Amino acid sequence: xxxxxxxxxxxxxxxxxxxxxxxxxxxxxxxxxxxxxxxxxxxxxxxxxxxxxxxxxxxxxxxxxxxxxxxxxxxxxxxxxxxxxxxxxxxxxxxxxxxxxxxxxxxxxxxxxxxxxxxxxxxxxxxxxxxxxxxxxxxxxxxxxxxxxxxxxxxxxxxxxxxxxxxxxxxxxxxxxxxxxxxxxxxxxxxxxxxxxxxxxxxxxxxxxxxxxxxxxxxxxxxxxxxxxxxxxxxxxxxxxxxxxxxxxxxxxxxxxxxxxxxxxxxxxxxxxxxxxxxxxx
Length: 282
Known about the structure:
Blueprint: E1 10-16, E2 19-25, E3 35-46, E4 49-58, E5 62-66, E6 77-86, E7 89-93, E8 97-98, E9 102-103, E10 112-116, E11 134-137, E12 149-151, E13 175-177, E14 187-193, H1 201-204, E15 211-216, E16 224-226, E17 230-232, E18 238-240, E19 245-251, E20 258-265, E21 274-281
Parallel strand pairs: 10-15
Antiparallel strand pairs: 1-2, 2-5, 3-4, 3-6, 6-7, 6-8, 6-9, 11-14, 12-13, 14-15, 16-17, 17-18, 19-20, 20-21
Keywords: Disulfide bond, Signal
Protein name: VWDE protein
GO molecular function: signaling receptor binding
């Protein structure tokens, strides 16, 4: 009966003479006489279906396939299936063993972000929101430089290194909603990426996924101090103030922000009266 040799095939990427290859590695976990291996490479053509792209018989404990943009492309999920047999009895094969699917491309996560504009804090409006490499554009119009969001960087480098799990390189970009103090409705933008200098045809036909960013525009709270002074708080309460001096009008408990006002004698004849004459904000 066919038996499992616990070959445990694993796919890793590797540059071979400057060209991108996938390497399928496998080996029996117990001493065996010299074996031959049949390696079948396939890609995920649709959910639950695979399409064969290459196969070979070898005595090596590895097999290569090139991502050449013809049979295999960036963005494909690739599998290798390995069976083993002895040279003098090729009809007696071990059970086929599958590798995990290897996604040969750039994964973007998360796929969606949502901001509430009046709660957004940070340095969004100090970052560059006119990126040409990491593109930002509204759906349907590829126009860089949407003012509702900003990116922490216009360019990120995926540096080659040893693969860990299913990742061989990673980079992070922070997205921040720009607090423009304008009530201009909700906005949806997309953040996408493209190679900075695509020297290889392989990259010219490939675009990583995009991130959908929704900026929800909620009304901003307001408070007032006006004329002699009438004060209306953020929650709508009304007060009168007739004192002379400099006072703290409001202070944020979550960030460094406060407003001071100065009230001075308005020269009331019948009763004490004070008017706003100065303001300072931090």
